[in-house]
Here is the input.
Amino acid sequence: MIDRRLLVHFDWIIFFLTISLSVIGIINIYSSTLIDSNNLYQKQLIWFLIGLSFMLLITFINYIHLERLAYPIYGLSIALLIATFLFGRTTAGATRWLNLGFVSFQPSEFAKIAIIIILAKIFSNTAKVPVKGMSAKDLMLPSLLVFIPFILIAKQPDMGTAILTFFIFASMVIFAKVRVKTLLGIIAASLPMIPIGWHFLKGYQKARLMSFRDPTLDPLGTGYHILQSKIAIGSGGILGNGFTHGTQGQLRFLPEHHTDFIFSVLAEEWGFAGSFIVLALYFILILWGLNIAQNAKDRLGAFLAFGVSSMLLWHIAINIGMVTGMLPVVGVPLPFMSYGGSFLLTTMIGAGILANVSMRRFIF
Here is the structure.
């Protein structure tokens, strides 16, 4: 039975922001796929309703249970990633989807939540986090727990999600407090890994990074995504070209218009005004999430809220940087707005964790 005190302190801000961004996303998916007549917006609507159910379920389950189930959740996530590697469906050279017959999903998306939960469990244990900050020895276990899914995801290959898992880990480590000497040592040790990492990149991944410097060098190849995205965003002007009246998206000049480049469709049709409103909603969401982390009633809640907030922040920052040409194209979707059932479900579970921690800070 639900504690009535939880209903009194229900986080309507998280609920409103999640609903608003998801609805805006569905509307833009409808517009971007209007000519295709493939009803992707209807599928996204169904995933939204499923995600909303999971969000509410997670909201009202005491998050202490997430700590107790941290290792089973992590183990299940690793098992699904291995299953994807062995039996996954390959599309466009990437093996990222696991087919269960009635539905296909991306285990790499849920791995981000599993990483947040397992790190929150470890870092919330004050006995394992020294007052002076963590040393390299203290970071060995959490580093290993993140390294395993990082490698499995990178091998799919899905460098965008792999990079995000690292950024989530780095953010939570800093939040947990790490010794300055240890941090500098990690940075110094990481520098030689850059050329080694470059060696293991696929050819198209290297080409994308090179074209980022000057996409006009290959305007019909690796630079095409960035150039078309910039054209779409720039043509929107102040108020946009109008709903379903974008040219780059509607005429299929803009690739991945309903997934990674959905913000470009928004900017083209709704202009600077619409883009500003969406970015303002994201800004409020991140600030509110950090506020929840700061005011959580315990360390576990603080790390869960901060982990989810950092996940959303890095997704937003990388995606917006990517579609505006400020960052290389690495295939990172925009929270609540990009098409994709696994990603939408993951972000809404994350929103449920935020609402969960927010409500329980008033209950002792």
Remarks:
- Strands lie at 89-91, 94-99, 104-105.
- The two ends are 17 Å apart (CA to CA).
- The mean pLDDT is 90.
- Residues 4-360 form one domain.
